[in-house]
């Protein structure tokens, strides 16, 4: 057993037993109930995956007298299941290529991060510790891959467990979750490849040397947003964000960039992830009373839903929303708040037109097979509002599960719309796809190493079948490849070259959402030409461009904010007063 895995087994002894017990010696024993909410397939290299399938836990008060019940959540994120399926599809696609990693089989071990740091930490430790799914198939204790057995008990040889250890994790989605994972797993040199975490703070290689991402850094997004508001003459804007590292760093950078573009920030306001009634009132009071009608919001779709619900209750309709990339393509918001979001503008990460074969893979789910997977069963029962026979789904989302009628068995994904099967906006999915290929290309480069000419001590090479995470990091940092006709490379911080599509939220004749590309931002373009916008394609909220404020545009060039004052007016509200020199 490698040293890094041994350290992790000792760390997890706090969850599973004490050092010196059988669990820490010849037999690995999982103490407690094993969660079935995961997807697992064995391989020579098992790639870990963390995806936010749920959010908004239902609050409950512990009694400290009985064992806590599993956490229940209000919402299931269908598009996150598409991201999971994209990871599985990419791995199976690689395994089917005889000329790509011919001597290695890739496996996967995927868990739900629930967009929650404590949950994500626990699940990540299970990934890198190697606890496979009960009932899954693993190689024999002798290491013979041709001999397999079913796991029907919790006692496993440590050798069997070791083979299912994930030396790399694709995840997490949120920047805060990714930071927490890196701080806990960084000591073991385990690489984390994020497909959606964009905080510029994660570019700090001194703090996060094992971090890479296929998602551009927010430093570029903020520059693009400042260029956008300046282009339309919106020199008086409000900026809000959820209390997170993602929003804090983004807003801090926007305040710096906005000065260079002659943009004045009317106010900034941070709000909790799960705002109380008071916190929500404070936020919407600021929005309602401010003269600025253009608002940039750094948050995810879950926080945006809460805000829009209160905006509607107060009948506030004269706003121009600027979406951060975290919710720029969140089609779920349109279903309930389309009337408030028409005309929204936002930069979204690069889209690929098609991932060949992915659509068919997504639609291959059938009622006869999904009931054995908690993830797939939950999705099926939520989408068709029915109960599967023998379902292992444990989530009902505030609905009485037994009130649902049994599934008929004739349900078909092609008959209904779902963000799961919608492949018209393959952005995050494309990032997941590239993340899998990043790991695969690193493994391929590793397998081509010549003994005596290797990059490690005394010219040694790494063994892909006995992988050490730090060796994988070495090759991942140097990866340079093409996927679906697009070149993929990374800078010294592990960040990809930034490219965004500028999207405009428009209403189709049937009332559905049409995300129209009306411009782009290309960080590789020469200075001054990185932003391209086609005004004629834009559909505005009220048929015409919104002014920055109720009284029109407020000039605020750098010369006029020489005496700009940042005045704290409450615990978390800041107002930027732009003094004009007369």
TrEMBL record:
Keywords associated with the record: Cell membrane, G-protein coupled receptor, Glycoprotein, Membrane, Receptor, Signal, Transducer, Transmembrane, Transmembrane helix
Signal sequence, renumbered to the chain: 1-20
GO molecular function: G protein-coupled receptor activity
Domain Receptor ligand binding region: 85-508
Protein location: Cell membrane
One Gene Ontology cellular component annotation held by this UniProt entry: plasma membrane
Lineage top rank: taxon: Eukaryota
PANTHER family named among the record's database cross-references: CALCIUM-SENSING RECEPTOR-RELATED, EXTRACELLULAR CALCIUM-SENSING RECEPTOR-RELATED
Protein name: Extracellular calcium-sensing receptor-like
């Amino acid at each position: 057993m490698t040293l890094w895995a041994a350290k992790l087994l000792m760390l997890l002894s706090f969850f599973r037993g004490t050092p010196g017990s059988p669990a820490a010696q010849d037999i690995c024993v999982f103490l407690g109930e094993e969660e079935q909410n995961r997807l697992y397939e064995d391989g020579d290299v098992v790639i870990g995956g963390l995806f936010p399938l749920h959010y908004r836990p239902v609050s409950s008060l512990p009694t400290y007298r009985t064992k806590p019940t599993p956490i229940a959540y209000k919402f299931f994120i269908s598009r996150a299941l598409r991201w999971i399926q994209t990871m599985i599809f990419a791995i199976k696609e690689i395994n089917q290529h005889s000329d790509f990693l011919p001597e290695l089989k890739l496996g996967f071990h995927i868990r739900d991060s629930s967009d929650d740091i404590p949950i994500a930490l626990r699940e990540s430790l299970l990934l890198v510790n190697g606890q496979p799914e009960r009932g899954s198939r693993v190689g024999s204790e002798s290491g013979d891959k041709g001999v397999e057995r079913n796991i029907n008990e919790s006692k496993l040889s440590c050798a069997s467990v070791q083979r299912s250890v994930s030396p790399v994790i694709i995840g997490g989605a949120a920047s805060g979750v990714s930071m927490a994972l890196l701080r806990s797993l960084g000591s073991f040199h385990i690489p984390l490849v994020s497909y959606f975490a964009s905080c510029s703070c994660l570019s700090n290689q001194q703090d996060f040397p094992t971090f890479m991402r296929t998602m551009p850094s927010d430093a570029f997004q903020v520059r693009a947003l400042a260029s956008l508001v300046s282009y339309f003459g919106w020199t008086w804007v409000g900026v809000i964000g959820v209390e997170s590292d993602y929003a804090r760093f983004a807003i801090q950078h926007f305040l710096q960039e906005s000065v260079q573009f002659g943009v004045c920030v009317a106010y900034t306001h941070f709000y909790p992830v799960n705002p109380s009634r008071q916190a929500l009132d404070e936020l919407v009071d600021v929005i309602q009373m401010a003269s600025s009608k253009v608002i940039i919001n750094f948050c995810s779709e879950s926080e945006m839903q809460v805000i829009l619900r209160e905006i509607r209750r107060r009948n506030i309709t004269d706003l121009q929303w600027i979406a951060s990339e975290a919710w720029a393509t969140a089609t779920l918001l349109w279903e309930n708040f389309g009337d408030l979001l028409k005309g929204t503008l936002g930069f979204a990460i690069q889209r690929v037109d098609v991932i060949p074969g992915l659509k068919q893979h997504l639609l291959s789910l059938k009622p006869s097979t999904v009931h054995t997977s908690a993830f797939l069963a939950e999705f099926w029962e939520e989408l068709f509002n029915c109960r599967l026979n023998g379902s292992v789904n444990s989530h009902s989302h505030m609905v009485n599960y037994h009130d649902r009628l049994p599934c008929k068995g004739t349900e078909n994904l092609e008959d209904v719309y779902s963000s799961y099967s919608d492949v018209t906006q393959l952005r995050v999915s494309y990032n997941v796809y590239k993340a899998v290929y990043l790991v695969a290309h690193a493994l391929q480069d590793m397998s081509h190493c010549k003994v005596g000419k290797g990059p490690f001590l005394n010219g040694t090479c790494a063994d892909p079948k006995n992988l050490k995470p730090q060796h994988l990091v070495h090759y991942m940092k140097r990866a340079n490849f093409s996927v679906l006709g697009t070149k993929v490379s990374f800078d010294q911080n592990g960040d990809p070259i930034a490219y965004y599509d500028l999207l405009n939220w428009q209403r189709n004749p049937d009332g559905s959402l049409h995300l129209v590309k009306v411009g782009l931002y290309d960080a590789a373009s020469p200075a001054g030409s990185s932003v391209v916008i086609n005004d004629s394609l834009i559909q505005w909220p009220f048929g015409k461009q919104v002014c920055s404020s109720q009284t029109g545009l407020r000039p605020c060039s750098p010369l006029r904010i020489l005496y700009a004052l940042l005045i704290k007016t409450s615990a978390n509200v800041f107002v930027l007063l732009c003094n004009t020199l007369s």
